[in-house]
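Priority: medium. Attachment 1 of 2:
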């Protein structure tokens, strides 16, 4: 749900706002519109509104909802969402009893187990090298104003990366993720969920925050964070991981 209580007098401004949602069709929940109807699934060209609330069915419920245009690949990689969410659900089943949970609670201000576990359900996951998702922009999937494609947002050989914006968080996954074992994938997903839950702590910030809890930066990159998670946040494996 995106709300604006500002007076909107220019149609172009409304269109720009809709663009930031990345949805082709959207609902005017309330408010007053000069062109087009209020409670209507409207094409974006037809409406200029004052004091409105808009809601994107595509963003909220996935492709095929409220789109109606046909041929729209949709903004959600539902297949990757299903894989990642199932793996996280399995991995985090008894998370409240884990040492990672205890450590997260010690270090992250305002931490709650349910809040952390709950991020898995609202975070979007993308196979960033696979079309049609590879061509979506960061702005389309998270609303951060960045026009880089998902494909170009993941470096060569990079396993995973989290991006965030006004629409929420998305985890971009590369081929190295998909060729990994299920336990390896689960540890990567928990690593990314840590970025999501902390609202974008960087890898250096994570290394620093958990340095008294067995996390060491031994190998290049951020795989040591994933390795540390694999030991239930007790120590950092010394081998490449
Ligand atoms: Zn990371």
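Attachment 2 of 2:
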């Amino acid at each position: 749900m995106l709300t604006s209580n500002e007076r909107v007098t220019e149609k172009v401004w409304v269109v720009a706002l809709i663009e930031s949602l990345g949805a082709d069709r959207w609902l005017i929940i309330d408010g007053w519109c000069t062109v087009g109807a209020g409670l209507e699934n409207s094409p974006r060209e037809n409406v200029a509104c004052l004091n409105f609330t808009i809601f994107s069915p595509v963003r909220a419920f996935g492709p095929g909802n409220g789109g109606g245009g046909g041929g729209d690949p949709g903004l959600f990689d539902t297949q990757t969402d299903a894989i990642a969410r199932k793996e996280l659900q399995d991995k985090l089943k008894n998370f409240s009893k884990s040492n990672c949970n205890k450590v997260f609670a010690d270090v992250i201000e305002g931490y709650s187990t349910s809040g952390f576990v709950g991020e898995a359900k609202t975070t979007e996951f993308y196979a960033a090298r696979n079309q049609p998702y590879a061509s979506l922009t960061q702005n389309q999937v998270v609303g951060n104003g960045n026009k880089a494609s998902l494909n170009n947002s993941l470096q060569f050989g990079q396993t995973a990366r989290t991006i965030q914006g006004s629409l929420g968080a998305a985890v971009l996954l590369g081929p190295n993720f998909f060729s990994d074992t299920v336990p390896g994938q689960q540890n990567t997903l928990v690593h990314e969920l840590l970025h999501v839950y902390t609202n974008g702590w960087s890898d250096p910030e994570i290394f620093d925050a958990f340095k008294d809890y067995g996390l060491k930066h031994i190998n290049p990159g951020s795989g040591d964070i994933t390795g540390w998670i694999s030991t239930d946040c007790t120590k950092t494996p010394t081998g490449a991981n």
